[in-house]
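ok so heres the complex, four chains, lmk if somethin looks off
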Amino acid sequence: MSGADTLAHVENLTVRFQRPHPRTVLRDISFTLQAGRILAIVGESGSGKSVTGRSLLGLAGAGAVVTAQRLEIVGQPVLGLSQRAWRRLRGKEIGLVLQDAMVSLDPLRPVAAEIGEVLAVHDIGSRGTRPARVIEALTEAGVPRPEERARQRSGELSGGLRQRALVAAAIAARPRILIADEPTTALDPTVQRQILDLLRTMAERGDAVLLITHDMGVVSAVADDVLVLKDGHVIEQGPAQDILRTPRHAYTRSLLAAVPGHRSGPSRIAETSDETPALAVSGLTKHYPRPDGAPVAVVQDISFTLRQGRTLGLVGESGAGKSTVGRMLLGMTEPDAGAVRLLGDPWSGIAEPLRRSRRAAIQMIYQDPLSSFDPRLTVRDILLDALHAAGLRDKPAALRRAGELLAQVGLPERIIPQSPRILSGGQRQRVAIARAIATNPRVLICDEPVSALDVITQAQVLELLDSLQKRLNLSMVFISHDLGVIGQVSDDIMVLRDGQVVEHGAADAIITAPKHPYTRQLFEAALHLPKAA
Amino acid sequence: MAQFRDLAVAGARRLATRLASGLLVLWVSVTLTFLALQVVPGDPVKIIAGPGAVLTPDAVAALRQQFGLDQPAVERYLHYLLGLAHGNLGMSYESQQPVTTLIFGQLGSSVALTLAALSVAWIVALLGILLTAARSPVWGGLGRGFEVITSALPDFWLGLLLITAFSFKLHWFPAIGRGLSGLILPALALGIPLAGFLGQITRQSFEDAMAQPFALSVQARGASDLRLRLRHALRHALLPGIALSNWSVGWLLGASVAIEQIFARRGLGALILEAVQRRDFPIIMGSVVLIALVYVLVNIVTDGLTFLVDRRSQAGEARA
Amino acid sequence: MMRQVPGPRGRLLTAWLAAATLSLSATAAWAADQPQSGGTITLATFKEPRCLDPTVGGDVPQDIIAHMFTDSLISQTEDGAYHPWLATSWDVTDGGLTYTFHLRTDVKFSDGTPFNAAAVKANFDHWLDPKTGSANIAPQLTNLASVTAVNAATLVVKLKSANAFFLTTLANPSAGMQSPQAMARGNTLNCESPVGSGPFIVQKWIHGSEVIFTRNPNYNSPPPQALHTGPAYADRVVWKVIAEPATRFNALLSGEVGVLNGLPPEDYITAKSSQNIAIIDDFQPGVPWQVDLNTKRAPFNDVRVRRAFRYSLDAPAGLRSIFFGAYQPAGGPLSPNTPFYDAAVEHAYPYDIKAADKLLDAAGWTGRDAQGYRTKNGQRLTVHFPVYASTQPADLALYEQLQATAKKAGFDLQIEKQDDSKVYARQYSWDYDLYIDYWTVNTPGALTFIYDSDGLTSLDGGYHNNEAGISDPHLDALLAAGPATSDPAKQKQIYDEAQQIVSDDALAAPLYVYPSIAAFNTDKVRDVRTDWSVHSVTLYDAWVPKN
Amino acid sequence: MSGVAIIEQAAVADAALHQGPARRGPGFAVYASCFILALVVLAAVWPHVLAPTDPYDIDPTSAFLPPSSAHWFGTDQSGRDAFSRVIHGTRPSLLIGLLSIATALAVGGILGLAAVLGGRAVDHAVARVIDVLFAFPGLILALICIAILGASPVTLAIAVGVGSSGGYARIIRAQGLIVSTSGYVAAARMLGHAPRRILFLTILPNIARPLLPLFTLGIGQCIVWATGLSFLGLGVQPPEAEWGALLADSRSYTALAWWLTVFPGAMIAVTSLSLTILGRYLQARFDGRDAA
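and the predicted structre for the whole thing:
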């Protein structure tokens, strides 16, 4: 590649931190950013990928010691640059897009002020011409009705618009380099797709994009080149096509394997139609009052039957009513209309004391397991409490059982006296699962159980759920916005939108031949890995 | 334009809510105080007549009638509420002057001191924050230490030290000075401990704001540290402190009781202290009324300040 | 003077003796300067009155205020002689039952109302009106029969019985003449802005802070003792309240305040050594600052215990350390400058723990408990001493010292600091063993107020003057005989015996003579005098030197 | 080409990178505070150990002696040893502080729990009361309480407690709302536990968790307030050596005997400061555990 197109040179970049204790977070990373190309840095959290991006901005963090053989941005060596000189580069030559615009844009200031700031700081345009440039940047970022949006604050915008506004702020001064740090994480698939397309457009216009992500799906969607990082070291580096198709390194392969995808093949359980369904739901409806008092249907007329040992995937974008359905299935929220039957007996519309004795049969796994643990309790207390609820009050027996449960979820027994707070995210979720199965439930409601986890952990937890389901003959309702995950775990899929069922049927059928346009749109937006060579 | 109209409507609605809840607060405080004062033993006539006054039964009856003490409690209560509605808070037992006159006579001095102390508190707190918050651990430690130490300082002790050192010994300030020069020391004595409290709260939110991703975004745009602090983090940092304005003003009113004694200032604190010492119930009731009004007023000002700093909530209400 | 007023006793009756003793060294320095008109005098004192009308209630600060804006009917000099003031002369007839006053006719109150006999009658009516609630003048006029305005210049007052102190009462500043038109407005308004014919006019009362006076430009009625005639020199007088002693004194040092009424004792030495501070250093006649011993209940119902208590107190030591010698110790029932003061009882009770121990042993208080207090039948020798929450710190410190020495004799002296109203309530119900008392009065008749059995009867409201609760027919007889005779030798004999009885019975423990200490900053004001009647500060002759 | 080092000082994004500040152990300040508080407690329980001189023993001949080796804090107007008086003043001051905070937490706890457990209507009403109580000048509320109850150390403590209860009621209510709507309470319900078990084993213990740091912080504040009222003459009886009363006594002598003002006040400040530092530390530990 010609030097003229190289917008950034990075040779043997090493970053050390002195606080709170000395450690090296990045060691000898080298790469270049080329005009018109997207370089993706992939890694799990703690791999050093964010620090890499921030080092290019001179913002590696407090107490960071950044060294390199060569560090050039748009032809200018930047090592040893004064803060003042760095400021001239930031925003003007390099733009930064962070993960969540809700917190990455100043929530107190209108979007226009945020975008305009970069122009004001670099003295681009005049007070009079800047508003026009702000509108232009918003338009470039694909924001419809930019004049109106410019007046709003980030909190008043939808997730997608907000993220575009953030992009607009990053490109307003027309930097040649754009660093996008997890720009689509936690976004709904359709929005994610739009943002990635936007990055692609930037690259095609001749800018260089450094995309930082943990998701191989995102890499495969837009990246030209890939750099795989682990613990501050480069594992693998090269053109995206090569690495995605023929990963040389085992770590890269595990990252790729962790991307959830459709598990093809027939359902696992032989169908026995006369069996009592685990859950039978008919005409489930729930309204909530709007601030002005008028009721809004959050869930409308949902019916399904969950057969024992099977998994129903409940998918939809945020606000689709998935979680409300989950709460009604759990008997935590009473439906306004319709009924839930659990294992053949009425479950909704009965008195709480009646329900209480049967609660053991239906348990839940949360997105954020930590918040579901009493902060005073250790793993042991948590499990004993659950076993107490299940009727096991003999302490030695309960302790033995707790050990078995930990073994079942693949946790070492030594964590039993520990507080969940000091466990990793994956371990916490396993404790939550152990607690859920402690009562010998028949049904598990999983509400986004892996959304907050790293890809590899996510894969492991999904595998654990799968094996437990088989072993314990659990029936599951699996709620997620992630089509990949839903596709992987579900026997049946129900697609929700604005509280209504869009499509409902066997997973295979829906994935391979979605009927409803919305379902199709969802699937088109979803990211897929290229088939391995 | 529609947006502005919505805002105005929302603002007016909020104002109305504040006033209505203020009325409620006023009524509840007056009623509770009235009830509480009923159980205090002792005959108010003794207080009215003054210590050791020679009272004939006629005189007692005259005083009872004059102060409405010959009526049953319920009637006195209704009478008080009626008077309150007309801005009449009754007569002081002690000085036999209208309570409103006495309170208004002290108001100017108290308002001046409260505003001066609030200014001192905010200036000291914000200077400390801007200089030391979200900087190196040494600076942060210094700032934090200053805040913890000042917030633990007894205001009346600080006042004694200040007046002894700067007025009695060094003669930099007058002992009983009026006007600005007399305001400085008491405002410092009140403002410095309050600055410690405000500083702690503000530092927390300032450092939180500086650790938010948007702060990184701002820096990535090439903005200077000062710009980040002043234009972004400070706004966020101000909010919790502003929300505590009512508490701050309440704290100042309370602390001013001792400070006014030390600096020989007149003001509401001194008035209330005397009323309590002499069991001058009408003044106590009047003070409660005044405090309830201050509560409403400060709430409205707080709303206004919050709106200046953070228009999100109002905008949200306007849309709803 | 002007100490904290502990209770109803803080009334100034009339004095025979004047004070106005200026510190000579301070006088010499500026004696050559000539008085000049103009300027503002700031006077600071420790307590704000409830009302500016001196007869509503009746408290020490009100007397000073009365001096500013009123003139009295007659005046007194230090020799005890009566002199004309608003009354040019008077005749006493009918064996002391009829007083005929001849009044000036050229005096106007500052609101323009003329001063005349009708106005004087209106004042008498005002004093006696229950609504006024006069606690100082009205009780002294209980034997009044009638007041008649014969014509504009002549007033006749008839008494039911002879009263040697009647003119004394009229010379009291509290009995200053007020405008009938102003008094007719009712207490509320008259308290705010009373009107008299005095050298200054009440302009504004800023409650809690200050009273502002302006010069009365038409003033033509100074008493004969004044140094000049015509209007006062100062344009304005700001009468400030500064409760905090240290602040008050430092304001004087810095010149923010020109005159200090009530020099804090702890600052006495500093004031004395300051070049520009003049001290008016005197004490007042009457009954000294003392604690009355309640003889109506144990333990002070036993005279041996009372005497033991007196032996156990070492007030002079406390006065030296706390009051820096500014206050003089007192030992007898009357202050040394009171007529018929008997020096024989001054040192009747020196500090003598052994004597106290002996008396207490004899009285049966032989036990000692763990804390070292004496007991009798399992009862601790406890002495309850309610004091006002508003007590000045120096006094409190003195009581604490008394507490400490009394403990050595085995007394558990409990200083019970309470709200003023609560302390009054305890006085009303005899719920105390010690009670603070003093009378600033220039006659031995002060003893009558305190020890006559008439004083046992509670005035309405429960207040009783005889706080010791003593009812001794012989003492009553002596106290009645005193004012009735006009033979000085006889009077001396009577009052000597009375003082002996009070001292022997240990009805009260005197602590110090009531001080009359004022101070002024000579850079800011000159010719501050204490009044020719009751020692309170007067500013009629005072003037502001030009720098 | 040699590597050039850039050392950044900007603290920005620190938290973003490190997922919050590392949990800090108790630093020097915390240890120092604990040491001082240990001394304070010692002074309260066995004052004679620290100050053998009788605090009430007067000696008018040695009044107003400046600090010396014989009298560390000098002597007062009656020649009493000021150090001894300050040390002996610890017990009443501390007791008043403890009784105040106990009252404050009791009143605050009753209001806060009533709001949390009483249902929506009760919460609405109580929340209003709490708001007013919080904004009402605590010291003036305390003054009014004293006007009603009369002045004594106990009523002083109760008055300060009532006066400061608004803040505690607020915190307890807020904590109560967090707990009762928390995931773990929902989880306990979903496990099928009886409501009473959830209330006593989950909700109440978790509401009580922040009380220890609050209590610690609160004593310091209550001591400052109570000494303030005592300073105004509304507290202990003479000659009791309570810190506020000592300060009040010293007022007349500030220009003459600075030591009488400086030491009792410093004692209040240092005690309050130590309690604040310890309380903040406990609070940070508590928050850290919650947030992690």
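quick notes: Chain C touches chain B through 45 residues (CB under 8 Å). thats all i got rn
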